[in-house]
């Protein structure tokens, strides 16, 4: 049945999805979809399987956290939290760089009050990985929306 996908958990832990070429013009006459799917499974690691397209998440935000679970793909939340924190860190690091420039300007101007203010902001930004708790988010949808107010 067209519309199926091949899913496989690779040795590196990532889940790969392959789309059989159901509409290929060079398919042999009389070739069945099942035969095509079986050819697609050849050479793949053990556990590769054919699943309905609908069993694959449509939201790819945490694509690198997908795991095959009973012929369905689910998001491994601990991995998704790490992916999301890494995205937060990228934004946080950009904000730290901006504040480094402002801090240098405050030093040049001899403005110690501004230096102290910026230093406090930088510390708040550095603390985000320890203070922003992603553990309370139990679904990919909730996690996707989680973002520190210090970075908005």
Report on the architecture of this protein.
The chain has 152 residues and is an alpha+beta fold. It folds into 2 domains: 4-75, no CATH class; 78-151, no CATH class. 45% of the residues lie in helices and 14% in strands. The chain contains 4 helices and 5 strands; from the N terminus they run ββαβββααα. It has helices spanning 33-41, 77-109, 112-131, 140-145, and strands spanning 4-9, 15-18, 49-52, 66-69, 72-75. The strands form 2 sheets. Strands 2-1-3 form a 3-stranded antiparallel sheet, with helices on one face. Strands 4-5 form a two-stranded antiparallel sheet. A hairpin with a 5-residue loop joins strand 1 (4-9) and strand 2 (15-18). Helix 2 (77-109) packs antiparallel against helix 3. The longest helix has 33 residues, at 77-109. The radius of gyration is 24 Å and the shape is elongated. The mean pLDDT is 93.
Write a concise keyword list for the protein shown above.
three-stranded antiparallel sheet; 14% strand; 152 residues; two-stranded antiparallel sheet; 4 helices; single chain; elongated; alpha+beta
**How far is the N terminus from the C terminus?**
46 Å
Alpha-carbon Rg, integer: 24 Å
Task: Report the principal-axis shape.
Answer: elongated
Backbone structural class:
alpha+beta
Strand content: 5-15%
Count of DSSP strands? 5
Give the H and E element order.
EEHEEEHHH
Helix-residue proportion: 40-55%
Q: How many strands, what sense, and barrel or not for the largest sheet?
A: 3 strands, antiparallel
Summed up, the domain count is 2
Oligomeric description of these chains: single chain
Strand order of the largest sheet: 2-1-3
Mean pLDDT, all residues = 93
The low-pLDDT segments are: none
Number of helices: 4
């Amino acid at each position: 049945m067209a519309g199926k996908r091949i899913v496989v958990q690779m040795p590196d832990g990532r889940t790969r999805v392959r789309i059989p070429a159901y509409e290929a013009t060079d398919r042999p006459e009389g070739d069945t979809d099942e035969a095509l799917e079986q050819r697609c499974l050849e050479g793949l690691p053990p556990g590769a399987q054919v699943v309905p397209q609908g069993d694959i998440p449509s939201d790819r935000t945490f694509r690198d956290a997908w795991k095959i679970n009973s012929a369905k793909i689910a998001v491994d939340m601990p991995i998704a939290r790490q992916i999301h924190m890494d995205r937060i860190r990228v934004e946080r690091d950009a904000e730290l760089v901006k504040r480094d420039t402002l801090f240098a300007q405050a030093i040049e101007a001899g403005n110690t009050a501004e230096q102290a203010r910026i230093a406090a902001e930088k510390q708040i930004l550095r603390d985000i990985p320890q203070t922003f708790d992603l553990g309370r988010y139990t679904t990919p949808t909730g996690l996707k929306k989680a973002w520190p107010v210090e970075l908005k």
